[in-house]
Amino acid sequence: MTKRRVYVDNSATTPVHPQVLEEMLPFFNENFGNPSSVHSFGRQAKKAMDKARERVAVALGAKTEEIFFTGSGTEADNWAVKGVALANKDKGNHIITTKIEHHALLHTCEYLEKHGFEVTYLDVDEYGLISLKQLEEAIKDSTILISIMFANNEIGTIQPIGEAARIAKEKEIYFHTDSVQAMGNVKIDVKELGVDLLSISGHKIMGPKGIGVLYIRKGVRLDNLIHGGAQERRRRPGTENVAAVVGMGKAAQLATENLEQHIRDMTSLRDKLINGIYERIPHVKLNGHPTERLANNVNFSFEFIEGEALLLSLDMVGIAASSGSACTSGSLDPSHVLMAIGLSHEIAHGSLRLSLGEINTDEDVEYILEQLPPIVERLRSLSPLFKQCEGGKVSV
Amino acid sequence: MYNETVMEHFTNPRNVGEIEDADGIGEVGSPQCGDIMKIFLKVEDNIIKDIKFKTFGCASAIASSSIMTDMVKGKTIEEALALTNKDVVDALGGLPKPKVHCSVLAEEAIRSAIEDYKKKMK
Ligand SMILES: Cc1ncc(COP(=O)(O)O)c(C=O)c1O
Ligand SMILES: [Zn+2]
Fold first, then answer.
1. Which of A110, A143, A209, B101 gives 20 to 30 Å between its CA and that of A377?
2. Helix, strand, or coil (residue A124)
3. In Å, how far is A214's CA from the nearest CA of chain B?
4. Superfamily, domain A258-384
5. Phi, psi of A174 (to 5 degrees)
6. H or E segment at B28?
7. Minimal Cα–Cα distance from A302 to chain B, Å?
8. Number of H helices, E strands in chain A
9. Quick check: A258 contacting B, CB < 8 Å?
C-alpha cells in the first residue's frame, strides 16, 4: 500500500506545471544559445526571451519594456527597495513598509537602516490589515518609498494596494508591492493599481524556482543592484537563465488565463477546510482576515499544542504543511507576522498553515479533516496546558 | 530531521500523565520559548517509584521528556540529580543542533521536581 500524500504547502512552493515544463525543456540542450549572441542559436534564445517578457507584461497589464527578469522574488524585492533608496537619497532617506513583510523585504530595510536610512514599519490590526490613516500619517518630506506587500504569505491577508498606491502618488512617493503570493490568486493590473514597482516569483505560480520579475514603471528612478554586461537593458546584468525565463512567461500566462476558475476552486476548498476544522476541533482560531484573504490560504492556531509537533505528526500521515512556530523557524521567536497580529506566544507557537494549489482536490481536504482531529487530540493529551474537566468540558 | 529513537519517543511517549498525590512536582519553561514541561514524582525510600510528564512543545521536547522519565525511573534521588542534558541527548541518539535547546528542559524539569520533593519532606 502506498501512503497517501497530500501537499498543502503551496505558498512555500508549487510543482512546475506540465505545460510550463514542456516549453522549458528545449532551452536546456537544444536551443541553448546565449541570447546576447548574434548567430542563429542566440537569436532563437532571444526570441524566446521576448515572448516570455510579452507574456508577463500581458499578465500584469504592463509594457514589455517595464518587465525585468531577476534571479528570484527575493532579488526583485531587494532591487526595488535598495535601488530606489540609493537612486533617490538626494531627495530623502525615509522608507515606509509594514511589520508583516516577507524577510526579503524586512531584512533589506534593516540593512538600509544600518546605512543611514530611516524606516517606519506600519502596524497591522488583528486581521493583518494596515491602516491607510496610519500610512498617511507616517509620510514625511523625506519619504522616498512606500513598500507594502499585496498579500501575506503566512496569514493570506490582502491589503488595499490600490488605495495605498493612490496615497503615495498624491505625495509623489514611489510605491512598491511584493506580489509574490498575490500573483495567481488575485487579479493584478499594474496600471489599474497605480503601482511603480511590483515583484513576483516563478515558483509560487507553477513556474520554476530561481526566477523572479520586477515590474518597473517607465520613468521610475532606481539604481542597479547588480553591475555587469548589457543584459536586461543593462539594468540586470548576467547571462539570462533562458529556460527559467521561458517557464516564468508560461506560468504567468497560465496564472492569469485561469485566474477566475482558480479563485473559485481554491475558495471552495479553502472554505470547506476552514468550516471543517471549526466543526471538528474545539479551541481553534483562524488567523488572518475572514474575507480579505487569499483564496488558497488557511491558517489556524490550535490552542495548547505546538506547531512543529503538529507538522511532524501530519507528515507521518503524508500531509505536508507549515507552521509559524519558533521550533520550525530555527529561532526562539514565533513568526513576526503572528506576533504583529497580536497573538500570544503560546497561540502563535500552535499555528498551522495549509496553503492550497491546483494539485489539491476535495479528497485531499476530506483526508486532512479526517486525520487532523485525532492528531490534535493526541498532542493535547500530552500538554500540561490542556485539562479535561469532569463532565467532558474543557478548561485551561 | 530526527532519528528513529526520537520519532519513536515522540509517537509513543512513555510515562505520559499526571500523578494525583505526587510527592514532588516540577514545572519549567514558558509559553514564550515554546516549551513547557511538567513532571510528577512518586518517591519511596529515596527511590523514584513512579514518574509522569506532560509537555507542551515540539517533538524534541516531547521525546526528551519521555526518555528522561524512562532514565530516572527506579533510580535514587542522587542518581536522578546527576542526569545531564547531554545524557538525555545521547540516549536519544542525538538531536539536530537547533533542537538541542528544547531538550534542556528535561534536565531542568527533573531537578525542579526533586527540589519540590525535598521541600515537602522538610
Ligand atoms: C511574500 C513573499 N515575498 C518574497 C518571497 C521570496 O521569493 P523567492 O522564493 O522567489 O525568493 C516569498 C517566498 O517565500 C514570499 O512569500
Ligand atoms: Zn522545541
1. B101
2. coil
3. 35
4. Aspartate Aminotransferase, domain 1 (3.90.1150.10)
5. -65, 145
6. strand B24-30
7. 12
8. 15, 14
9. no
Which residue in chain B is spatially nearest to A348 when comparing CA positions? Answer: B34
- Shortest CB distance from A384 goes to which of B7, B38, B59? B38
Residue A331 pLDDT level (bands cut at 50, 70, 90): low
**Which grid coordinates belong to A74?**
527575493
Q: How far apart are CA A363 and CA A361, in angstroms?
A: 5
Task: Please enumerate, as own/partner, the contacts of A387-395 that have beta carbons within 8 Å and a separation of 24 or more.
Answer: A394/A282, A394/A283
Active site positions of B, annotated: 33, 102
| Residue partners of B61: CB distance under 8 A and separation at least 6 | A306, A327, B35, B37, B55, B102, B103, B105
ipTM of the shown complex? 0.94
A167-212 pLDDT, tens digit per residue, is 999 999 999 999 999 999 999 999 999 999 999 999 999 999 999 9
CA of A84 to the centre of ligand 1 (A): 20
| Cell, residue B86 | 547531554
Is the CB of A384 less than 8 angstroms away from the CB of B34? no
- Asked if B109 has any chain A CB less than 8 Å from its own CB, the reply is no
- Apex A40 CA angle, A35 and A45, nearest 5: 30
* d(CA B18, ligand 2 centre) in Å: 22
Read off the C-alpha cell for A331.
529561532
Strands (E), chain A: 6-7, 67-70, 94-98, 118-122, 143-147, 174-178, 197-201, 212-216, 284-286, 297-302, 319-320, 351-355, 387-388, 394-395
> If residue B37 lies in a helix (H) or strand (E), which one and from where to where?
strand B35-44
Distance CA A95, CA A117 (A): 7
| Cβ–Cβ < 8 Å for A106, A46 | no
CATH code matching the domain that covers A18-257, chosen among 3.40.50.1360, 3.40.640.10, 2.60.220.30, 1.10.260.40: 3.40.640.10
Taking the C-alpha atoms of residue A99 and residue B84, their distance in angstroms, rounded to an integer, is: 40
Which CATH number is associated with domain B4-121?
Answer: 3.90.1010.10
From chain A, pick out residues whose CB is under 8 angstroms from the CB of B61. 306, 327
